[in-house]
Write a structure and sequence with these properties.
The chain has five helices and no strands. The longest helix is centred in the N-terminal third of the chain and has 36 residues. The protein starts with a helix and ends with a helix.
């Protein structure tokens, strides 16, 4: 049983590494493009100013905050972070490319937590 858990753990760690590479590559290529579609948002503009000096890590933070806006749009709209229907400006393929690595990373991280707390 412990050998199986070890292989599952190694597989999850490898998957998490791949997801992190995916997030870093996507963030370095598409963050400015996505921000250009959301230029009216106070939240995006403030994050760009705050994190632009951090290099690649800043791009990942900016990309993650935009992905959060797309994952919980009603809450962000209620708080005044985005304007109504502003998220419709972004093309569907960019939305999918933006949200996919963050969801996959969350699923892999949740699987790692389940493995840790229930099987170890």
């Amino acid at each position: 049983m412990t050998v199986v858990l070890g292989f599952i753990s190694l597989f999850l760690i490898f998957l998490m590494f791949l997801v992190l590479v995916w997030i870093f590559l996507f963030s370095s290529r598409y963050t400015e493009i996505i921000e250009s579609y959301l230029d009216r948002s106070k939240f995006v503009v403030n994050n760009r100013e705050a994190f632009s000096g951090l290099g690649l890590i800043g791009k990942v933070l900016r990309c993650g905050s935009i992905a959060t806006i797309f994952l919980i749009p009603r809450l962000c709209e209620k708080r005044g972070l985005i304007e109504k229907d502003e998220l419709l400006n972004l093309p569907l393929d960019l939305k999918r490319k933006l949200i996919a690595p963050w969801i996959v990373g969350g699923v892999v991280f949740s699987a790692m937590l389940v493995l840790r707390f229930f099987f170890v």
